[in-house]
Specification:
single chain, alpha/beta, four-stranded mixed sheet, 15 helices, 41% helix, globular
Length: 467
């Protein structure tokens, strides 16, 4: 069998030499990024002009004055104004290996060598088949029976595809069950599922959703009982009308509230009695708990029917049992992912699975424990500054001051100015949240970040209006 022209091209010695030169150059220039640094005053005027132009082009101001220079080193990122900051939000959980990772550089080079940028419905490369097999093997390792993996370009579309499979399977059902304060996306349909009325402002109703209260760790038994009672009430009020239930196992946008196995199984028992499937939304939790999938962390493997992933995985996906296999025409997209996203996703998943990231004593849980220790010390010393921390694994949140939108917003922007990029979550109270890069964040990074958090809290406590 003759060698493929593509293999001859990829194995050309000049390709390997070029790759080595690129990695050497990256190391050389990354070496200048050793910690946070302020913006270059000489760049201020041009940077502000860039921000104004970008805001006009996109039709809205950027949340932060953040335009990347295109270079970083692990948890550090350089901006186009010359500043260097700790990235503790990573594109809301996307950059799992941080910035300018060498393995991702190699994946990007391999993608650039491929014949097409995008892969999709009619034309796929072997990269998609390999990643689908990796994800399904990892998903089923503890007894789940997910048979198929369909890729897409966003977490919202992964959820859309899952919902279409649910409703087709349970036709003519026209209602969905979900948790209060959930976030599922911002498409026309998913804005109806996301429990935030502001995200539906001016939109027509497209989907009927019945909400079940989420778990309250402070009163586990009562909150479980209330949720089960609410579920029974919805099912009794609309018999035969529900297609299934969409579950966030750790509420992300809602404020980083984890559930519990007992809570979820109590609800799943009721759903099973009514032959209602379970869809688990893991767009934010994927790769951030004690297991690759959060449903594995909670021991729900035998119950999941459909699972969606995104963010950290780069390319997004819907994993599903054979019973939900869509009929022709229901799920089909011109783009199911870019070649670079597929290769990057493979690198990230492989590295996390091989690097001691998972398990009760794995790196993810140690990241959460170290943040909890440092932030908890601040809370004990200054209980009027901070409540918490909250979250699970490499999902960290805390409530600054009174949790009002004004004070939390002022704090999170002051934190950005001090050199740490975080974000907000929840509403009453509002919380600051971190999604650190689990594949590269170090203990020294965490300690430095928490020190900056403490200093920023102190400044904001002294100047609550001007911070």
């Amino acid at each position: 069998m003759s060698e493929l022209a593509a293999d001859q091209f990829r194995n050309d010695p000049s390709i390997a030499q070029a790759q080595a030169l690129l990695h050497d150059a990256l190391r050389e220039h990354q070496a200048t990024l050793t910690g946070i640094r302020p913006a270059d005053p000489a760049r201020r005027q041009s940077y502000e002009a860039m921000l104004e132009q970008f805001a006009e082009l996109r039709g809205g101001t950027l949340y932060y004055p953040y335009i990347s220079s295109g270079l970083g080193r692990a948890a550090l990122v350089e901006l186009a104004d010359g500043s260097v900051r700790y990235d503790m939000i990573t594109g809301i959980g996307v950059h799992g290996l941080g910035h300018s990772d060498h393995d991702l550089l190699a994946a990007g080079i391999d993608a650039a060598l491929d014949d097409t940028v995008m892969q999709g419905n009619l034309q796929q490369g072997a990269q998609a088949m390999r990643l689908a097999r990796t994800l399904l093997d990892a998903a089923n390792v503890d007894g789940a029976t997910l048979d198929h993996c369909f890729f897409t370009t966003s977490g919202a579309m992964a959820n859309e595809n899952a919902l279409k499979m649910l409703f087709q399977r349970k036709a003519p059902a026209d209602r969905l069950l979900a948790f209060e304060h959930c976030f599922a996306g911002r498409t026309l349909a998913l804005a109806q599922v996301t429990d935030k009325p502001a995200y539906r402002d001016g939109l027509p109703a497209t989907l009927r959703v019945d909400y079940v209260p989420f778990y309250d760790a402070a009163d586990a038994e009562a909150s479980t009982r209330d949720a089960v009672d609410a579920l029974h009430a919805h099912l009794a009020r609309h018999p035969g009308r529900h297609a299934g239930m969409c579950m966030e196992l750790v509420q992300g946008e809602g404020g980083y509230y984890p559930g519990s196995r007992a809570f979820f199984t109590a609800l799943i028992d009721v759903l099973r009695e009514h032959d209602l499937p379970v869809m688990v939304d893991e767009v934010q939790t994927f790769g951030r708990t004690s297991r690759l999938f959060a449903y594995q962390h909670f021991g729900l493997d035998e119950y999941v029917d459909l699972v969606t992933i995104g963010k950290l995985s780069q390319v997004c996906a819907t994993l599903f049992r054979d019973a939900f296999k869509p009929r022709p025409g229901l799920v089909s997209q011109t783009f199911t992912g870019s070649t670079s996203a597929l290769l990057a996703g493979q690198v990230i998943v492989d590295r996390l699975l091989a690097a001691g990231q998972f398990g009760e004593a794995g790196r993810n849980m140690r990241i959460g424990a170290r943040f909890a220790d440092r932030l908890g010390a601040i809370a004990r010393a200054h209980p009027d500054w901070i409540a918490g921390p909250f979250g699970l694994g490499a999902m960290v949140a805390f409530t600054p001051f009174d949790g009002s939108a004004q004070r939390v917003g002022a704090f999170i922007r002051a934190l950005f100015d001090a050199g740490v990029i975080g974000f907000i979550a929840g509403g009453a109270p509002m919380r600051a949240r971190f999604l650190p890069p689990p594949g590269c964040v170090t203990d020294d990074d965490i300690d430095a970040v928490c020190g900056i958090v403490a200093d920023t809290l102190a400044r904001c406590a002294t100047h609550p209006q001007g911070s």
